[in-house]
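Request: Not sure, any thoughts?
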Amino acid sequence: MNKEDIQRAKTFFEQDYHDRGKIKWNGFFLSDHTQKINQNKEDRTTLHEWLDETPVHEMQRVCQEAFVNYRSIILQLNSTTSDMTVPEPIHALIRSFNEEGLWIDKNYYPFELIRHLEVKI
């Protein structure tokens, strides 16, 4: 580079070039945010179906099998969501259980509130 090129570049960056800074960053953020919102809409529009009802004695057996063998379960509550749709099944490990219900993480689920319970294959 000669002195003329260096002077031309210096003049360009001092007088003509304007960094878009935050405006440019907001454009990136907006596209990522829009993509996440659209993904959430798709997730919410996924309709789930009711799974078969599981008797309480079978739920107790499933809990024992899953807990002893450290296997995940699929659990569906016997209630609808706030928008009156079928709830999404819960996939988790049982932390503990007794004859009346089970614990997943810090949540307790009595068997009478559970519609379906099975060991995840």
Notes: Strands lie at 72-77, 90-93, 96-97, 101-104, 107-110, 114-119. Helices lie at 3-16, 21-45, 56-68.
